[in-house]
Amino acid sequence: MSERTSSSQERKPPVNGRRTSSNSNDEENEVPEMEAFGLIPRGFNPRDYLQVVDIHMFKEPHEINKEQHHTDKFYNPKLIVRRGQPFQIQIDFNRPYKPETDQFWLEYLIGRYPQQNKGTYIPVIVGNVLKPGEWGAKITHKENNSIRLSIMSSSTCIIGKFRLYVAVWTPFGILRTRRNSATDTYILFNPWCQQDAVYLDDEKEREEYVLNDVGIVFHGDINEIKTRSWSYGQFEENILDACLFLMDKAELELSGRGNPIKICRVASAVINSRDDNGVIAGSWDNTYTYGVAPSAWTGSVDILLEYYSSKQPVRYGQCWVFAGVFNTFLRCLGIPARLVTTYSSAHDNNANVQLDFFLDDEGKVDTKLTKDSVWNYHCWNEAWMTRPDLPVGFGGWQVVDGTPQETSDGMYRCGPASVQAIKHGHVCFQFDAPFVYAEVNGDIVYLRREKNGTQVIENIDTSHVGRLIVTKEVGGDGMMDITEDYKFQEGSEEERLALETAVMYGVKKQTTQDTTYQPQKDVDMDFQVQKAVIGSDFKVTITFRNRSHNYYTATTFLSGNIVFYTGVTKNEFKKHSFSAKLEPSSSSAFDVAIKSSEYLSDLLDQASFHFFVTARINETGKILAMQKATALVIPGLRIKTQGEMVAGKQMSVTVEFTNPLAQTLENVTLRLEGPGVLRTMKKQFRQIPPNSTLIWEVKCFPKQPGLRKLIASLNCDALRHVYGELNVQIQKP
């Protein structure tokens, strides 16, 4: 009895007798090989009619389809084409094809419930002419029993993996070819096609934003910009299937998968694990037990493949990891994309374009009251597409962000938001433009609570947030400044107008008029942090310029904090106060020494510090306040190669590292990868004593000729964010 009940449970009845919606590319339906029109007469023999013997897909990397469609880099045996552009197949019949009497057509199917009106069942009729951007097929060549077809797909076609059948008409029914996975066809976005929503007109940009499988992540902080390479690996084995699986995971209906706006919106939610068990679990607290530290990853491939096989969130990521994986997803599907870094990015909890920092009586920041934070840097992505849902002029680059910061329509996701709309303050246009506007445009306001509860504004810094927005240059590893894409020149008339527009469209902006605020105009204060390698001492120099004819004294307070790169303080490691005598019409400088023993035990991942300097002019009671993020210099890995570098032949790679700290590094993990050269390799080292050098040699067989990049990372509890890279030219055999 129990056996029968269990089997009946397996055959679940359809939900409320309705068919479930079609949101999986993986599932299939059964297609009949003989679809009878009615009763079949006894003498009917299918062999009397035209029969398909074989179908040639021309799917090898060196053959016409993959070359013309720019899909020859994919490490995938099936046919991959881009929509809105013709491709070729050849059909071998059992006898010569006679157009007068024989009638056949092609059928492309996707998902479990193919329907013509949903674009998931596509019959393609053979005609005489191909119309641009519409489904069709025409015969280009006939020889013996074979015909060559040129097939055009629609420029709005669903993106995914289609099954192909050839159907032959007979008077008694339709004969179809058998299900054959070798003829499956992937259809992707096409930035080379003018009718496609992701069309990009510059060939150099298409090569960079679609075809380049490595990139640069800019990190560090505004005063100390750091770079590291990231392997996107969008063409590596199984990555295309993993990316299509993400759309299944997000339950995006198949009929919506031709629309880049919808794909970006659901992908920005599924890249992070909050609320949908998505790809990467974020962790910002410096403890990465049972997972990989965010700084240890060298690329997206390991993360996507692990998620594809385990279906469980991969631990752990921070903003550049979310952005790196998102970039792989977009480029893999054919949406032009780039990774963008904003220095001093505001995380404004209440989107009022104002970051409130509360000071206590001493002039120190009150961490309990201060809820907003400024990230040293934040990485997101831009994806290129038209926006037919918005007024003209807001197409082009769109911000999409997979890092979970705030919810949007009830889920952790962000975008697509038009960069052009953000620049001009038109934040009423979907999606999430007010949040991104605040990330790059906030004012920092220093407030002090009086004993009677009134708030006094002590200082306003209008230029700290969103000071620099960058991405990798096209065709090189340098930095391209794109701040002007997001905002007008600081202090310009246009900038004020954009702000007023944003306020009109509902970005809350508190006015500073309603609180008394008269700044100290005749004294300027600035400070500089000396560059230093991790593990060494350094100094902070505070300079005052007294432009008045008065003699002032300033009670000065320096607070040094160890921070997460998100601007959240872990602890204060340095407190120093002194009285500065400011002579009339002159400048004076004061040094504060920082010893390595003061910071080393508590140092976090990115070796980031945040210094606050506040000074009260005793004679006037006015306060000067300034803050800066800074990071220590972390030594790199050295990568070398030996012998000749030829595709298909063994080559040798060595990675070297010298420990700069006065302590032994323990449980050190090294990673090395290079798309087209070697799959990710890992090695553990128990210990590296102070000042000693480790050497790791790896043998590999590079697959792809051309200029490739090797990327390595070193990771242990005491030292993270150690990277190295090397460009290598692999020769043709």
Automatic annotation (TrEMBL):
GO terms for cellular component: cytoplasm; extracellular region. One of its GO terms (biological process) is blood coagulation, fibrin clot formation. It catalyses: L-glutaminyl-[protein] + L-lysyl-[protein] = [protein]-L-lysyl-N(6)-5-L-glutamyl-[protein] + NH4(+). Keywords: Acetylation, Acyltransferase, Blood coagulation, Calcium, Cytoplasm, Hemostasis, Metal-binding, Secreted, Transferase, Zymogen. Its main location: cytoplasm. Residues 311-404 form the Transglutaminase-like domain. Residues 1-13 have a biased composition (Basic and acidic residues). Residues 1-31 are annotated as: Disordered. GO terms for molecular function: metal ion binding; protein-glutamine gamma-glutamyltransferase activity. InterPro entries: Ig-like_fold (IPR013783), Ig_E-set (IPR014756), Papain-like_cys_pep_sf (IPR038765), Transglutaminase (IPR050779), Transglutaminase-like (IPR002931), Transglutaminase-like_sf (IPR036985), Transglutaminase_animal (IPR023608), Transglutaminase_AS (IPR013808). Belongs to the transglutaminase superfamily. Transglutaminase family. This is Coagulation factor XIII A chain.
